[in-house]
Fold these 3 entries.
Entry 1:
Amino acid sequence: MKQDSDATTVPACFISNHEGFLGSIKNFIKDFVVTEIDTSGQRVNTATHTPDSASSDENNETGAECKWNNHSSQDNDVAADCGLDVTIPSPGSFDLSVILGQSVSEELEQFVLTLKEKPTKQELSLGSFTDKHHRANVHRAVRHRFPFLMTVTIQPEIRVREDPDYRELSQLVTEDEAEDFFRFIDAKVRGSSYTFGPDDDKDHRTVVHHFLSRRFGKLVETKSFTDQGTTAISVRLREQGRPKKRSAEERKEEEVYTGFTLRKENLETLEAISYMAASLGVLPSDFTYAGIKDKRAITFQSMVVKKVSTQRLKEKMAEFERRGMCVTQIRSVSEPLRLGRLQGNHFDLVVRDLRPHGDTHSSAADTHTRLAALVKEAVENVKARGFVNYYGPQRFGSVKSVQSDRVGLALLKEDMVSAVRLFFTPEDLSDPVNNAKRHFIQTDNAKESLALMPLSKARERLMLRAMNRYGTGPDGCTQGWLSLPHSMRVFYPHAYCSRVWNEAVAHRLTTLGHRARRGDLVWLQEDSAESSLPQIHVVTDQEEQEEVYTLGHVLMPMPGNTVKYPENAMGAWYQERLSRDGLDGCRFRVSNLKLNLPGCHRPLLASPRNLSYQLQRAACGEAGGEETTGNSSRNSDRQLNGTTAEGKLTLTLNFDLDSSCYATICLREIMKCDP
């Protein structure tokens, strides 16, 4: 069931006006399954992978091949695939019509022309290639001829799509420079360098430096130099294997990255990571992931751990399973994961005990028939119109007494002591966790509180350990926050900004309605072949009258130091809202904690993809709230048929959402209640 505080964190504004229905979710852990969708569009529990380094087939749990060629990796992907020399031949040495065949080559050329005219996420299949050396030649030929394309192998098929890194760079430099740079990256010739054209704009050079460092920092280093009055950026491949004080064996271990798919059940992401780190003898910060997943669910997500070999990770599989974790698809990879490097998530949800809103004295058959109509109407409405893209309750933490956004507000005010005390505020319960929190609040004794805190509470123990060493004053509390991984520290200020965003959207819908209005923000629509980075556009009075934009185009800013605010009544609303919390002139930086919040422009509406549903009678025993044993899906496969069976109805929903969109919020729009 939802917590009492949910209503305050997620306003009750809807887009569609259907009636909805009542029901409950997460009765059982199996009722809420979340599967990450990687950047290639595959679910991580079904995607197959090839190791990045020359290793035996036993290092690959799947045996099939699926790998995007990523230019920012330190190892050449083609070399990893077939062991060929990585030096890119001269342009004349590739003939795509010979390597691909004339018809496929022409189809690829047409695909490229389409991309130039209108960017798209669509893919093109180049066909199947059973010989790995042939596949390597295809990868290299396509990448050299069209540096702005990514190639992927799903053995034995090869597909191509636009490379988002190329598109981003091509907005900063000329297209010719972007293509030449990517050819330079692909070649990986030791000691080589590449120089961009003259650029006397220091601010622009800084943006280019930051992009290259963010996307290729492990592979290259950059510097600006001045020659004969003009300044340019030079890029050099980093030297590999330079002498260090560590032994060769230590260096080799330090460079090991192992990727895997984690299935966890009823565990927080950090809790799972903390246990695995302790078992493997590494730090929690040695684990990287694309996103944090729900606790009360079965979740599948990609992870990468540093300094742990594939064999060592396999040896721990049985131990992890005893803690509700299953590790599969273990493989060698070349670099860590980055937050946000995912396409979205797939959800398989079960809503139990369906019933109409309001009391009903209808017969079971009549109720079932009515519910079938209500569900169909609700699903079709959300398919067509989407839902308000609120941040879900998970964004604000699971503790009733203190929401995470209040902790975040204290951090933005750089009041470290208040933030710590809010973090440790206990609930009105007497379990070990709350007893330890209560002891800390009452005594300010980090050492004794650490002894009381259960081993499973990774965040609390990290902070208490740091404060035991550095004290509980401002400096000690700062060290306590710094003991958490960056992704955990930034969670709290993000929670505050998310609450403001939710409130802003509710106010926007209430006061300005469900149309795009003058002063609203949208992405600028560009039909030109000469594409640029998406630009924020302010809706004009004429565009409002002509209904050029819809509510689905409207963006709402999450507060930060780089965002643009609406140029209508909502702009003043943001200023007043931040001022009310004492954040006038806030820089949205917390230097002591190395936190920077640029903010973002988030679409007001979101839409589920591939939405399907199934309405069933609950299996025997499930209607009474007891989980069935055996093949419960087989027991509940009977479709609603209008007969007078007495069983409660159960709704199964399957859909995809973009990253940072919440399934519980989609359900609210469907059901018209907090599920």
Note: Residues 1-7, 50-94, 623-645 have pLDDT under 50 and may be disordered.
Entry 2:
Amino acid sequence: MPAPNNNAAASVRKGSIAQKVPGAKSTKAPSKKKDEEEGVDTGDGWDEWSHGKALIKPADQLELTEAELKEEITRILTANNPHAPENIVRYSFKERSYKPTSVVDQMAVHFVLEGSLLHQDSDEARRLRAKEETAAVDTVGEPDEEKPETPATPVEEGGETEEAGEEDRPDSVASKTDKKEPKLTNQFNFSERASQTLNNPLRERSCQTEPPPRSVFSSTANQWEIYDAYVEELQKQEKNKEKQKAAPSKKDNDKSKKKMMLTETQNDDITKVAKASKIFERMVNQNTHDDIAQDFKYFEDASDEFRDQEGTLLPLWKFQYDKAKRLSVTALCWNKKYQDLFAVGLGSYDFSKQGRGMLVFYSLKNSAFPEYIYPTHSGVLCLDIHEQYSYLVAVGFYDGCVAVYNLREEGLDPVYKSTAKTGKHTDPVWQVHWQNDDMDNNHNFYSVSSDGRVVSWTLVKHSATFDMNELVFTDIIRLSVNGAVSEGPGSPQQPSIACGTSFDFHKQIDYLFLVGTEEGKIHKCSKTYSSQFLETYDAHSMTVDAVKWNHFHPKVFVSCSSDWTVKIWDHTINSPMFTFDLNAAVGDVAWSPYSSTVFAAVTTDGTVHVFDLSINKYEAICQQPVVAKKKTKLTHVEFNPIYPIIIVGDDRGYVTSLKLSPNLRKKPKSKKGQELPKGPEVEVAKMEKLLIPPFSLLFHLFKPDQTAAPREECVMGSVCMEALSGANGSSWFEWPIYEYFM
């Protein structure tokens, strides 16, 4: 019997918690040994008694693996009192109200024991020591008669010895009750750790401010005021119902639903929230790009003082819309009234990649997202913002349509749009331009297209009907290759049509305008005389991408082409005054609004070229790449009308703003004792100096007795100038600045 019991006890797993009979493990071996010494017979019931002391495993005992037994479970104690209240309020005399207190005492007292230990050097310890010494002296001085009473009787001694013997006996009842039970072994590898840290000293901080001014307002709401408020609300609801009923039945159901949704959502609260959110978005964006805003307002490149009349461009903001990544920037235009707002036309110049387009408006105050977004079904190729009415935008599309968008109107559709019935172009519209209002005060703009037509569009709105906006077209002139104007299908011989690609109207003479063609020629035309061209210039060998009049001088204009050249012209002379080769196809050119001799051009190699003819007539004073070469091509450039910055667009839909350094925006200096005249006359005088040739050279070319001189040609770098024929009928002369060759 004993063997099986021992094996069963030994086979218990390590993680089991055994229930033990009290005192079984501690008294088993000593009692058996003492019985053997005293010769006590244990009897036959020993096995049963020892079997009762075996480890008993409960039925719901949790079985743990060796890894779980070795795992240490850390228990972290915090100093926060879970029973501490969190809603304690105290009266604030400053604010005259109850305020919640944030400081709550987290200390909880569980046990307090007052100690009786004293420092040996303290006064109280000395007094206590003196009392003990006097008490000891008193006990020593007592008579010896009382001593016999102290010894105990033999019976008591015997009893004490018996009690001691009972205590020494391990199997006695007293020993079983008095002896402490042994500490249970740790079956779960429990480890207890504690640490005490130094509490930081508490600091009280307080501030005192002046209370805000108080105003007492009182009003009485009677029944009449409540009645009036209900009447106003009913009137608003009736007006909304009338507007919904007045919607035209000719419109589609989808458009009527959109208008109903717009009328329902138009209320004061939403508009206030929208305005506040826009201001907040601009504040966040300005804080994010604060370094760029500081550069835009204050930075001036000090190194320009040490450069030899050269300048640089400082990159500022970069504008990009995620849904227009695959579209090219096909048009740029600044708003004349709001100088921080500009429009961007997005489309494609590739014939095989035509599809959707987009018209977006950006502001310098928020470069992260456009202010207005108008998706279009066809690619946008050109646009122009009205100078007086800055909310009107004329747009030309790749499919030949022209449209007018009103930024004040809600919705994504244009308020005016041409159709096949109203004389739309049959080829892409390459440029549009607003003109002065007609005699009936109707707005009008011009457009030029590859179909050879220069068309005037008049915005007419009939007040008799509810929604009748009409674009009335008038053909101003038809372009032809051989210089003659086509007279219609009834003519005996139909000349070939020239493709118009760009045009610009004179700044001072209202009827005069220039038209650039795909064949490389520039025609000077008039609105009032459309039977033939006033002048034709053999300008370029490839398409004329842009032609623009000078803002100050009435005779000068500039042109650029894909043949890598930019040319400066006097419209009274048939040959260019200056020719600049930029070693890459030129996408666009623009005159500066602050100087008559400064202009900028962009090329397909990603470079911006800035020229100042009053400083250097032979090469650009700034040539700076602004995008990665061989990947991105620049398409357009525009000067800001007020700030010294330019914006350039590329074929990936990005618009980059650049700040001009001081050398790129110099103004003429006055001599000592002379006051410089103000106004545009200064810029006209600057350009006149470039147009007038040296007197000695003219005297050498035009002799008094010369009636007909041979044509003298010259080439000097990329600059070429011409002089008009003399009064005696002499032929044209081409002459260089320094020398000429016979």
Note: The chain has 13 helices and 32 strands.
Entry 3:
Amino acid sequence: MNDTLEFSEIYQEVKGTWNDGRLRFSKQTVVYKNSKTGKVDSIPVSELTQAQWRRVCLGHGIKLWTSTGNIYKYDGFKDTDLEKISEYFKANYKVELVEKDMCVKGWNWGTAKFNGPLLSFEVNESPAFEIPLNSVSQCATGKNEVTVEFHQNDDTEVSLMEVRFYVPPTTGEEGADPVEAFAQNILSKADVIQATGDAVCIFRELQCLTPRGRYDIRIYPTFLHLHGKTFDYKIPYTTVLRLFLLPHKDQRQMFFVISLDPPIKQGQTRYHFLILLFSKEEDISLTLNMNEDEVERRFEGKLHKNMSGSLYEMVSRVMKALVNRKITVPGNFQGHSGAQCITCSYKASSGLLYPLERGFIYVHKPPVHLRFEEIACVNFARGTTTTRSFDFEIETKQGNQYTFSSIEREEYGKLFDFVNAKKLSIKNRGFKEKKGMKGNDNMYSDSDDDQHDAYLERMKEEGKIREEGNDSDDSEGESDESFNPGEEDDEIAEEYDSKASASESSADDGDSDGDRKKKPAKKAKFVKERKPRKKEKKAKDSSAPKRPMSAYMLWLNSSRDRIKSENPGISITEISKKAGEMWKQLGKEKKEEWDAKAVEAKKEYDRAMREYKESGGGSSGSSKKEKKKKGGKNEEKRKRKSAGGREKEKERATGNDSFKSREFISSEESSSESDKGKGRKRKGSDDEEEVVSTPPSSEESGSD
């Protein structure tokens, strides 16, 4: 027989809700760990007195009694687990696992029995239901009725508000009220918060970040009372999960964080964390409202009647003694600036991220605590706005993702080394596609150093590219010749000097101007040459044979209907994903069949293409389409060319010195002037091809 028995997905009822976790039976202890909160219940084997096996709503459950009066219930076992658990209990615990049936008759008349912290309602000596008395928040009495109210839990979809018991007047001893006796039995074990008696100590006007405000904190033996100007909160110590004492980055303040489950609430707002902010320089002298013997007996030297020191030390010391929880402080992590935290943003609010020995905690709005055991992986992502920062993403096993953004780039090395030392799974988006990296923690750990260096270099290179890109945006589309700033300035000056008279420039200047103006013309031709490429891509022949499909596409077309029928309501993108997975799992023989079909389709396509080309296909149709598309634009080009040619001939014939050279006139101005002055006779012509071919000199003589 094994030394231990372990079971997963075992449920424990906590204030009306089921929390799952893991249960382990060992020879020394029975340990249950809550998956949601991480809380651990440890029961020494020497304290076990009784064990019971029964059928419950979640399969089968175990009920354990201890010598201290506590009762523990765990549900979610299978029917087949009874035999091995019973044998293990007999061999190691010397306790017999007794089977007990629950009453399912549905009767509402029976006997109420108080068994430690439980109120059991039995019908014919079989329990119908049980009420944990620590879930009772209030108990009220009537003439013959007792009303029991319960603490509410926000995690439950349906909450039990109250239960009423009718107590017959004949029960009980003579002279005693049975209703009051029933109510006192409940109140003796109930978790009723009543601010009766004096507080152990009071801290005045403490600054609280969540809930925000200044509160007087009264420390009672069983609960914590926050008294503010607007709201009051009473927090039982049983709801406190953890305590944190965190130094601020400025080294002048301290955070004291109290984790709560279930949280305190105000209206629709829930506060899972109580965060207090202290100044390190603030001191206090504290006197407990108890005598020295009582302090020594109750706190066993953890507290003294008279204490003095820093305010944050006194508060944390008193809370630790009353709650009986350890205080978590930052470990050995130190950031780039020497602080034990990292400045970052979460949900558009700036705060501090503390890497702890067993998790991360973010302070303060909203507070987040993530344990290492619930983290699936972490990711270092490049910042969305600037390369001087990066984002730290944490993904939990439940599928939730937390992104801490705007972390300084200098913190990357320290944070990466910390995560690597804690053996957390790291996935970087830039390394997802590497072979063997996906889902392999060992591969991630082997390449951690390479990822570290590559990521830093990538951030530096991207920063340089962005800085250079701002200066070179305007010159991206220009040729190498026009990138010289000196030449560019000279050309621009000549272009905007077009109003100068011809007498101001010599023949040499004209020649140099002509040479300079040839370059922009080349640029214009170079830009226009790109357009026909797009036209060539758009031109398609519908009568040409279609390209053959690959083996995968042939298989997909034949399997698409089957995938839709097996997965009703599946989307188009999901079909592609599903088909890709099915194709990967397809056997080698099946793939060879589809490969052979693809080869046959390729041969058929080659044969059809040869016949198509031999029959003259692909030449006439494409030429006709190009002529139709280019027809309209060619007419305008011909008009401009003919007008420009006639204007040059006129210059040579007349020899007018006052005429401006065409280098200083735009193409639109020249075409408009030629159309107005000398193109009136040409407008009446029917064939523009003939107008272009006629000699310019003949028309000029006729017009003169």
Note: Residues 201-324 form a domain with the PH-domain like fold (CATH 2.30.29.150).
